[in-house]
Amino acid sequence: MKHFPTSELLNNLPKQFFASLVKKAGEYIEKGYDVINLGQGNPDQATPQHIVQKMQAAAANPINHKYSPFQGYRYLKQAAADFYQREYNVQINPDKEVAILFGGKAGLVEIPQCLLNPGDTMLVPDPGYPDYLSGVALAKAEMVTMPLLEKNNFLPNLNEIPSDVIERAKLMFLNYPNNPTGATATKEFFEETVQFANQHDICVVHDFAYGAIGFDGDKPLSFLQSEGAKDIGIEIYTLSKTYNMAGWRVGFAVGNSSVISAIELLQDHLYCSIFGGIQEAAAEALTGPQDCVRELVGLYERRRNVLIDGLRSLGWNVTAPKGSFFAWLKVPEGLSSTEFADILLEQAHIVVAPGIAFGELGEGYVRVGLLTSEERLEEAVRRISMLEIFKK
Length: 392
Ligand code: PMP
Hints:
The protein is an alpha/beta fold. It folds into two domains: 8-47 and 292-387, Aspartate Aminotransferase, domain 1; 67-287, Type I PLP-dependent aspartate aminotransferase-like (Major domain) (Aspartate Aminotransferase, domain 2). The chain contains 15 helices and twelve strands. The chain has helices at 8-11, 17-30, 49-59, 74-88, 103-115, 131-138, 163-168, 187-200, 229-232, 239-242, 257-270, 276-287, 291-313, 337-348, 374-387, and strands spanning 36-37, 98-101, 121-126, 142-147, 169-175, 203-207, 233-238, 251-255, 326-330, 350-351, 353-354, 365-369. Strands 2-8-7-6-5-3-4 form a seven-stranded mixed sheet, with helices on both faces. Strands 9-12-11 form a three-stranded antiparallel sheet. Helix 3 runs antiparallel to helix 12, helix 5 packs parallel to helix 6 (131-138) and helix 5 (103-115) crosses helix 11 (257-270). The structure holds 4'-deoxy-4'-aminopyridoxal-5'-phosphate (PMP). 4'-deoxy-4'-aminopyridoxal-5'-phosphate (PMP) binds at residues 41, 103-105, 129, 175, 179, 207, 209, 238, 240, 246, 251.
């Protein structure tokens, strides 16, 4: 068989870190160990029944067996607008300010290609969601990182971005509640960002993947709630986490109409829209009963408490996340994030994601997912206590 070499574009894509994590964990599972996987971000609960039922009925409807309209069904755009009105009191024009996406990831990877020319500069958080780098590479853009430091509650300090970078930057990605740090944004920070972006002609893309997941009674803020946000940016919403629909691949972008039409133009060339049955189910999720979301947030909060209280009782000084379904934990002194993750896998058969996978400033931390039961999290704490790494 001939081996065809891949293009420079593919050769220059960043390495997919999670593939190696899955492989390492797989080796331990194969050896017969009872592995507790806290390394990935795959929601463990089922999609709520009323959403599944909507899909079942929609799958039988021949209208959905045809191509969907290129830019998605209007009823789904209307549902997205109704959702923003109900949840955030933000008015959205469904015809001009919503683009339907094959999940948030698709939108995040497409946007740099929509707005940047090769060599253009974009700002991304460090640490940050690794798939942002895929979008940068596919657009052949230049990336400059914005440090997210614990002392700043993991919000970037916009005043510390060098002035030559600010001049060049055309695009900025933000993400709160944040993966991997579990931090949330403040109203003041979003307002400052709008002003900054306006002043420097930077388009802001707020990744709101964990928008529904805020703890201790705090509902995470939508970026679009800040005055003027729609003038300078968009928000990416996904149904993956809010409604446990990660496998369904559906989300949407909302906000600045010029960015929305750019996304739709690129998508016109890449795909026809999502299966109509998924669009019907997504509209049902956004506008139907929301008790399932409250229950889910309660479940994650209980798991967070079990994990954080348990680890603190071992003498590990950890910070509780304010949102998302991740905890961002400082590794014991003297160990790198990879060394510590390896110790947990080899000696306690627990998989966590080493912070370095999320950027240089992720070094010194591991990310622990809350995507398993309280019992398994208790068991993880028990196994960590046996390592006797932490002394009171
Ligand atoms: N953004 C962040 C920060 C995420 O963690 C994820 C999912 N892991 C996504 C976006 C994308 O989610 P999806 O493509 O399922 O909508």
